[in-house]
Amino acid sequence: MKTVIISNRLPVKIVEENNQYTIIPSEGGLATGLGDVYKTGNSIWVGWPGIEVPEERQEEVTQKLAELNLSPVFLTQEEINLYYEGFSNEVLWPVFHYLVTYAHYEQSYWDCYKSVNHKFAKSALQVLDMKDKIWIQDYQLMLLPEILREKRPNLTIGFFQHIPFPSYEIFRLIPWREELLQGLIGADLIGFHTYDDVRHFISTATRLLPVNSSSNVLNSNDRQIVIEAFPMGIDFEKFSTLTDTEIVRQEISNFKNGKEDVKIILSIDRLDYSKGILERLKAIELLLQMHPEYIGKIELFMIVVPSRDTVPKYNELREQIDQFVGNLNARYRSMDWIPVNYFYRSFPIEFLSALYSSADVCLVTPMRDGMNLVSKEYIASRNNEDGVLILSEMAGASKELTEALIVNPNNLGDIMEAIVAALRMPLNDQKRRMKAMRATVEKFNIKHWVNNFILKLNEVKESQKSLLTKHAVNSVNEIIAVKYAETHDRVLFLDYDGTLVGFTGDIDDASPDEELYDLIENLILDNSNTVVIISGRRHETLESWFGHLKVDLIAEHGAWQRKQGEQWTCLPLLTDQWKSEIRTLLETYTDRTPGSFIEEKSFSLVWHYRKAEEGLGELRANEIVSHMKILAADKGLQLMPGNKVIEFKNIEVNKGKAALNWLYNKHPDFVMALGDDHTDEDIFKALPDGSITVKVGNNLSEAKYYLNDFKEVRKLLWSLVKEEFVERD
Ligand code: GDG
Question: From 2.40.30.10, 3.30.70.1020, 3.30.565.10, 3.40.50.10490, which CATH number describes the 579-650 domain?
Answer without folding.
Answer: 3.30.70.1020
